[in-house]
User: Fold this.
Amino acid sequence: MVETREFFDAFSANQHQDDQGTAPPRATDPGWAHGIMVNGGRQKIKCKYCHKVILGGGISRLKQHLAGERGNVAPCEEVPEDVKVQIQQHLGFKVLEKLKRQKGLKSSKNSLVPYYQDTEGEADDVQRSPKAVLARGISRKRRGKEIDEGTSYKKKRHKKQLFPTATPVAQASIHNSFASQESMDQADMAVARFMYEAGVPFNAANSYYFQQMADAIAAVGPGYKMPSYHSLRGKLLNRSVQDARGLCEELRRSWEVTGCSVMVDRCTDRTGHTVLNFYVYCPKGTVFLRSTYASEIENSAEALLSLFVSVVQEVGPKNIVNFMTDTAPTYKAAGKLLVDRYKTFFWSACGAHCIDLMLEEIGKRDEVKELLAKAKRITQFIYNNNWVLNLMRKRTGGRDIIQLAITRFASNFLTLQSMASFKDVLHQMFTSAAWMQSTFSKQRSGIEVAEIMVDPTFWSMCDQALKVSKPLLAVLHLIDCEERPSIGYIYDAMEKAKKSITMAFDDKEFDYLPYLKIIDCIWKEEFHSPLHAAAHYLNPSIFYNPSFSTNKVIQKGLLDCIESLEPNLSTQVMITSHINYYEEAVGDFSRPVALRGRESLAPATWWSLYAVDYPDLQRLAVRILSQTCSIIRCETSWSMSERVHSKKRNRLEHQRLNDLIFVHYNLRLQKKRSESSKGRSIRGTFDPTCLEAIDADMEDWVEDQIAIEGEDLSWMVVTVPRERSSVSAKVKNVDDCNDSIYERGSYDSKGIDGNSDL
Assistant:
């Protein structure tokens, strides 16, 4: 979190570290930490980030440049986000201090503007007048003049600055008023009381927009009035809907070129009600289309077909390359009926769902079932007692055993993999003096868990199971990654996973064959699609690899795609005649930059660059390689869905709730896309003992099934777990770290929302 007190401390520290000539003597304004005087003049300042030289307006104009305030000067495009927020806060505080002096207000506790009984679209703007005053004050002044360094200019007469340089006394008073520990504690309690009283789930604190909201309020300063009930459900919701629709329209324009995948995410709550969420994927991003109540139609393939047809018409049949559902019989049947009706795209099963089916079947084998039962007894014992849980987190550096993946059975094996990575730590824990001296070491449940921990057979069984699950979890991680479309890699990834399993068992057929039979059965019967084979063939990083070899399945898959995705017969002939140029790597395919780009570029990008001489083949390859093979989903908000799909409804309110769901899911997808484009992993904070684990079908790992004798349980003394990755399908080696408690979340954190309310 960008904290106000850190803002002032950082500025005061920087003021004394600038090189000679950077700031005027005795300069106290924090803006000088980010600009350099040119030729010793206060009216010619160079921005440290974009290197623009700003003429006129002095340090105030530089701060407007850094804060992104338009009107007087162009915003800086290179300023770090934390610096931008800090400058915005500084400008907001100065305007409010000036208003206080002008109006003669005696205390910062008094409201800057009167409170009006708000109606939609009227008094709401008056309530937030400090922000409006700031905007009007900035735009009232003349436009600033900026040039690149070295450009000549005529010296202009200095005009009065909008924001005079703050004196050290003023800065100290602001620091004491807004950045004291007492003020921070009061702000924390104000947020906590709101969440407790309104029943907001704790995981709402993991939302990216939670911190954005705090920063925006801090930038306005004291006197800001929160939007009213009517504004939130009225004009602000309408603005958000328009923003989301604008983003969807922007992505829709690319569907004609790259094609798109329609994804049907089926969600079932604990009461058995089914909701279908429809998403559309393309390389530029995923959008949420709509949500439909399906409990009454999901057992009829014909009824599902009618629903799917309406979605296809909304997206556009010519834009669709892949229509994806799970493998439930009626959904599979409806998907195939849909393909038979249009004949211009394919149906396929969700990759993550199919990998989860493989792991589920592997978990049903007797030896694996016994292993998972013992592992669950360990976590049940640890996560239902504060002393044992604290001891474990102390030895693991605050890390947890339980790990959540994107599917239920992947979470089981990922947790097992995590437990294996802590083998030495857990063994030491249950043989330590602290454990031996505790009352738990003498209780029946404690003795049972300790015996499992020191049993070599348990760890041997764990190693055997991980020989199968690790390669499958790696495939799951590949198809869940949004950095590039995954369809060009899934065929190769599955082949490598099977080879890895075979090698892990030292090529002993008796050991690995039962597992490969499970994988092959689901791959052939449920998962494999002609799109996977064609994408495998058209992926240059795989095709040009010396180890590549084609077969009948790959060749037939390519021909099926040519016939379905390009109905024109003459174009089909042109594509098949041009495919030889790709196979022989001639023309632009043989350029040195094309050779290098085989590995570094996304396959669809590679084709768009080097296949311009073969436009029909290029279009086919780009459309195939731009698809995903797994449903990209958001966590379902069940309370919101129940209200939308309730039989008791008002027509106007139902439309409003549909708009709310539309905004809700598209905001989450937008944040996910932003994180992926920046190459940043999605981080979050969750506690396995909380409802997030229960909502992820991990309740059998944490539920209280072991009676603990004579223990005074209290959540108050449980160590807070470390921040962790919420979606990764890999467990890295555990690094040694201090046992610390994290009280304030990171700026860009995002957690697992499970089925909690919005």
